[in-house]
Known about the structure:
alpha+beta
Amino acid sequence: MEKYDSYKDSGVEWIGEIPSHWEFKKLKHISNVRPSNIDKHIYEDEIQVQLCNYTDVYYNETINSNTYLKKGSCNENEYEKFKLEKGDVIITKDSETPDDIGIPVYVEETLENVVCGYHLTMIKPISVMGKFIFRFIECDRTRRYFELNSNGVTRYGLGKSSIENLVLPITSENEQQKIISFLDSKTLLIDSLIEKTRRKIELLKEKRTSLINEIVTKGLNPNVEMKDSGVEWIGEIPSSWILRKGSTIGRYSKGNGIKKDQVRDLGFPCVRYGDIYTKYNHKIHKVNTFINEGVTEVKVKSGTLFMTGSGETLEEIGKCVVYVGNDDLYVGGDIIILKPSKEYNPEFLTYLINSECIRIQRELNGRGGIIVHIYSKNFKNMWFPTPSITEQQHITKYLDEHTQLIDKTVSIEEKRIEFLKEYRQSLISEVVTGKRKVVEC
């Protein structure tokens, strides 16, 4: 790694040493910092504009004429103060968590009739290139500075003075341009690799889903005699299989509410509604959340299935996991509990409930507006293609082996993305603080 000839102490702990010929300036001395107060309301007597909103900044790295922006309105003074011009940098100044504050976007071109919206702060460069400011704000050291200087409890905010007093290491305009060109080239390459890896992960997950859908409705023998199931979304099934109503596959019950403040680090093991979404995929071996005795009396043993009773979308209702642990497990509210009959292998049934043929039935039975619900009575009226218990065991073993291989590959690719993101951050930080000298454009 190429370094500069000599360095000096910056006097700022989180930046460290900088090249001797660089200098330090506060953001307020090299730019105009303007927190926006333009909300999303549209008033007919105001100038009709497009708004660069919070999500436009949060989910993009650049803003240009191809960026889709929603309509808004503002008065004449607001328009002049917050119109988007080439070289501007916009950052998030409010959020529910401090790590979402100070996320920057760079304005690539002057945009007609576009202004900066609420919960954002616009930075208009004066004596430093906007893209250099953008890259410095993007680096991990600056992100930590903003986190430490945000205020709030349930919602966090970054005051104007905290933004203005951000100290930047500044070099010549020529060197700034070299740094910008270098980082544009390198981050483009890294981002391309990340995107390719994400697509690979998507394809692997699609392969996993397709494999499960095929095997739980068609079996393992591709040459077996088939018959029409009589159900459109199930199609043909092996002739030896039977179609059973959900009311015959086991005994249903429901969990009982466990509040967030009742969860402990030690005590009796429990599973809550949110855990099924965020912590588990297909099986629950061990849990890391616990409750005190008496919080709920609903407990189950190994081999029990849990389905989510609600969700924000139809796709989220009825997600199923199976408990295969050794201890009794307490169950929280908004969870449908299913204890399968002896004719069903619990793990096979979990694969089946998460498959396409049952997912369609789950969505057809979902009810609600903002929150969608599904109940045990809905599962009782669904149709389940059912092989013999022996074939269920063979299918389960096959799917376990093949999905684990796919999951392992997905995990490797997800770690690759994390590595690339960390390398990207490290590269930006090293270059904009002078730890690494750019010797190529």
